[in-house]
Structure prediction request, 538 residues.
Amino acid sequence: MKKPDVGAALTQWRDVIGAGHVLTAADQLAEYEAALCGTERAVAGVLRPDSTEAVQRIVEIARVCHVPLYPVSGGRNWGLGSRLPVQADSVIVDLGRMNRIHEVNAVRCYAEVEPGVTQQQLYEYIQAHDLPVCMNVTGSSRDASLIGNALERGVGYFDSKHHELCNVEVVLGNGKVVRTGFGHYPGAQTGAICPTGVGPDITGLFSQSNFGIVTRAVIRLLPETEMHAAIVCQLDEDDMFSSFIDALADLRRDGVVRTAAHIVNRERSRISVCPMLFEYLIGQGMDPARAVQEAEEIFRMESPGAWGAVIPLRTSRKGVLPVCAEVHKRLKGLARVQWVTDRLMRAGTVATRLLGVLPSMRRKHAMLAAIRPFYGMTKGIPTDAALASVAWPVQPGAPVSSDALDRGDAGLLYCLPVIPMEGRCAVRLKELVHEVFAEYAFTPYISMNMMSAQALECVINLAYDKRLPGEAERADECIRRLFDACMQNGFIPYRAHINHMGLLCSDEDDTFWQTIREIKALFDPAGIIAPGRYQPPS
Ligand SMILES: Cc1cc2nc3c(=O)[nH]c(=O)nc-3n(C[C@H](O)[C@H](O)[C@H](O)COP(=O)(O)OP(=O)(O)OC[C@H]3O[C@@H](n4cnc5c(N)ncnc54)[C@H](O)[C@@H]3O)c2cc1C
Prediction:
């Protein structure tokens, strides 16, 4: 790439989108440069366009001035780089102002949105218009975007997000605007409901790639069901883990459950539930230091299992009991199984309050309060509750917010391998994580999400303290070691941190990545869109 002329580009961008939406002041850039993962990287500026036409003009100027751009929608790509670009000194295109919801169609079950639309915004729209649809929410924050998450192939509470995306409008690196599926036919009625359209299906080319900037897309929604419930499983013995995974796979294969089961190790569950217990106890007037201890104690007493799993259910009123009964029967001897519905939550809350003289009932009452926001996800309600799990390992009880997470002292890195949904593979992955993390004395926080009856998406969190000198480097080294170990075992990560792209695409002879390079040259000949993102080093 030729030498960038950032100064000339900034001048022209100011004319196009207004000086107030071109950020270059050090304090403004520092906001964007802060990242939960702890990576330090300079950005050359931030642009905040509000229309597809403005994005198109931005791209044209970037091409002429050879300035690399890095698009972000919600910018909550936590654990993988947040808003930081892969290549230093890129200019961030923050699409947050493009936050219009163009349409929500409850009959055809979709929303057509711009990149800045957040989970919370769509949820509020659905509520305000009383629409019988449900969003496949992620466990990330309310402020996470729908489009950015789907483009990163995120995973929602019910299912993976990538295949919810269709009819995508993209400003290519060559300046052209393309619409995928049937969407490019004027007046097509099927753009939002028949994702492939006619001819080659190119929608997938725009996720985990750097061919263009997505400016609008359709997100598929789920039809509302009569009932929402969650089946909660607790596995006391670690040596039952393999059989437990196989039993869950059978449940999905046989169609008993149709949504993603979320399986977590004890430590992962602890850092999610304890902050919610803490909040509840603070609300009861307990002082913070005692509330931290008490939260840990309640969790220890009430959640003794080595592993836990939550299976969301979306079904008819009559459908809940048969499914729960079948799950119960099949997991007998492997795990303790309970189910939660609105009615059971309400009844449990009242009963445990009335019996609050008994310490065990007080603990259960606190646990019900703690799991409420997570249970809300079974109804498509976004929550910030999981964010506190980021701070808990480093500063238990510290206040956490979506806007401040990147600036806090807690650091977080992810390794995200996909493995076959088989007990022996899950055990192997668990061993790898424990071996590598033990070497670096980090605590393994493990989640496994059942993407299908055949595949488990694994989320390995590495939490570290940014205040300790050298800790960011040690954390990165540990995650790289795990990344390697996963690759060697055939458990290829499906998503990567901005610094780990090279670990996925370093093989010069791999015709897959050679082909990607050729497509890149076609869509973005000047190489200005997100250089290095899911792309071999050039
Ligand atoms: C506690 C916690 C829980 C989490 N839970 C989940 C979870 O359940 N599921 C999950 O998937 N993730 C989860 N995450 C990870 C992350 O927060 C989410 O994936 C989040 O949705 C990503 O941020 P975003 O949606 O704002 O996307 P962005 O950060 O805006 O986008 C992600 C990347 O996609 C690219 N991109 C974005 N917009 C565009 C565009 N318009 N055109 C071209 N490229 C673009 C950019 O390279 C960007 O870096 C979690 C993180 C934490 C800390």
